[in-house]
Design goal:
Layout (H helix, E strand, L loop, with lengths): L8 H9 L5 H8 L10 H20 L3 H44 L2
Helix pairs in contact: 3-4
């Protein structure tokens, strides 16, 4: 028994293909593509420092054991710094939301 659609392809996809002005929906949907840009320039520099640290450490530290130790420490340091940026951003966002909520509640809405 063959499966047949009740409507045409055009009818099924017109609602999905229509343009939208809902920017928040688009931002939420596409936010994962560029996670570092959410935090701005500082996060970019933290990520760049974390990426470049093994190269710089390898050039500056001659002893392989010490070099590996510094590379591990730099990886942990850049991760902690990046997580701190996320935490600060989240705290600022939460304060802004609480401020908006308090303003909305003061209006009676």
């Amino acid at each position: 028994m063959a499966y047949r659609q009740q409507t045409s392809w055009t009818e099924r996809t017109t609602a999905e293909a229509s343009p939208t002005n809902d920017v928040d929906r688009l931002v939420k949907r596409h936010g994962f593509h560029e996670p570092h840009t959410v935090l701005g320039v500082l996060a970019h520099w933290v990520g760049l420092a974390g990426t470049m640290a093994p190269i710089v450490i390898g050039e500056l530290v001659a002893d392989p054991a010490k070099s590996r130790k510094w590379v591990r420490l730099s990886a942990v340091g850049s991760t902690v710094a990046f997580q701190a940026l996320h935490t600060v951003r989240d705290l600022l966002r939460r304060k802004e939301q609480e401020k908006k909520l308090a303003e909305c509640q003061s209006r009676g809405g």
